[in-house]
Specification:
Helix content is 2%, strand content 46%. It has one helix and 24 strands. The protein is globular. A hairpin with a 3-residue loop joins strand 6 and strand 7. The strands form five sheets. Strands 2, 3, 4, 22, 23 and 24 form a six-stranded antiparallel β-sheet that branches. It has a five-stranded antiparallel β-sheet with strand order 1-8-7-6-5, with no helix packed on it. Strands 13-14-15-16-20 form a five-stranded mixed β-sheet, with no helix packed on it. With 337 residues, the protein is an all-beta fold.
Length: 337
């Protein structure tokens, strides 16, 4: 979670007041949703850069545990999802769609406190600041900030289990900023050159050239690389397209115009040890659009082959911010990278 000044100052105090359970307790909850029909405020335009807005929702619950979503991953049915909260919780649920296929709400929501390596729930955010999530065969992999690590939980069973192991982070701890660690955690396609390996990208921990630290954590291409950083943008999440290209969600904050969001498309063939990668900007949005503190992104391929991009926000448990879930269609399909 990023500490944003000014507008989000209240969010920090509010987030600190949200108590986490002291054990792996699971809470079922209801959420009310309001449909977002247009991405541009006061505009009916559907095309934004290389994406087409499909629809979205803003959601809330009387239970103040719901919020602070850092990363989201969808199951193969394109409806059920797993998410992590930076308060140290799992969130599972299912999206609902209306008769035209647009997002309309959430159901089957459960929030469960995460367990540490000793099998205990932890109240201290500094110990369980979950920021990134990736699903691999038999595993739910989570990256944590502040106490930087990448832990491996069993899937199924992550909600009631301690981590079964961790991936070594191939950077000295002194190079990692306490609250600017590895927010992006993705698993590459199994049939690509990275052979299903986990990939991490830092929010704003930088190399000597000012690029984002990144690494392939396993497999035949294991090693470090870097991602060009375009100030003032920071990386918050990502997902691989079926063809192996990586979509990278980025966020900015400026006192002059508030928050912004963009998505870059990085060619999969460029991701390899020693590389410095950059990519095409697919969308660049600001406060004239329906955005907030956008932190999570996943790619969903529909049965007809349509590529959808679903983005979620972290509301910091603040009355000044919103829990958003937005859906876009990738226009132009999966042209070769």
């Amino acid at each position: 979670m990023t500490r944003l000044p000014a507008l989000f100052a209240l969010a920090l105090a509010t987030a600190a007041a949200v108590a986490a359970p002291s054990a792996a307790t699971s809470v079922a909850m209801e959420a009310s949703s309001r449909v977002i029909s247009h991405f541009g405020i006061g505009s009916s335009e559907r095309a934004f850069g290389k994406l087409e807005f499909v629809g979205g929702i803003t959601y809330s619950s009387p239970n103040n545990l719901l919020g602070a979503v850092s990363s989201i991953r969808f199951r193969p049915d394109q409806a059920h999802f797993v998410a992590v909260l930076d308060t140290g919780h799992w969130l599972t649920g299912r999206i609902q769609r209306d008769g035209e296929g647009a997002l309309s709400g959430l159901s089957d929501l459960h929030i469960t406190s995460m367990l540490n390596s000793d099998g205990e729930g932890e109240n201290a955010k500094a110990k369980m600041d979950a920021e990134g999530l990736a699903l691999a065969p038999g595993a739910a992999i989570v990256s944590f900030e502040q106490r930087h690590r990448v832990d491996i939980y069993p899937d199924p069973g992550f909600e009631t289990s301690r981590p079964s192991g961790s991936y070594p982070i191939p950077f000295p701890r002194s190079e990692l900023r306490g609250n600017r660690g590895f927010e992006t955690l993705v698993v590459a396609p199994a049939d690509g050159p990275l052979a299903g390996a986990p990939v991490i990208i830092a929010e704003r921990s930088l190399d000597e050239q000012g690029n984002l630290l990144a690494a392939i954590l396993d497999g035949p291409m294991k090693g470090t690389f870097s991602v060009v950083r375009n100030d003032p943008y920071d990386a918050t999440d990502g997902a691989f397209l079926p063809n192996g290209d990586l979509l990278l969600l980025e966020r900015r904050f400026r006192l002059s115009d508030g928050v912004g969001m963009r998505i870059r498309r990085i060619k999969g063939a460029d991701i390899r040890p020693g590389a410095v990668v950059d990519g095409e900007v697919l969308i660049d949005a600001d406060m004239s659009h329906q955005i907030d503190n956008m932190e999570g992104l996943d790619v969903v391929q529909m049965p007809d082959g349509d590529i959808r991009i679903i983005i979620v926000s972290d509301d910091n448990h603040s009355i000044l911010q919103r829990n958003l879930m937005l859906e876009f269609r990738l226009t132009g399909g999966l042209r070769p990278s």
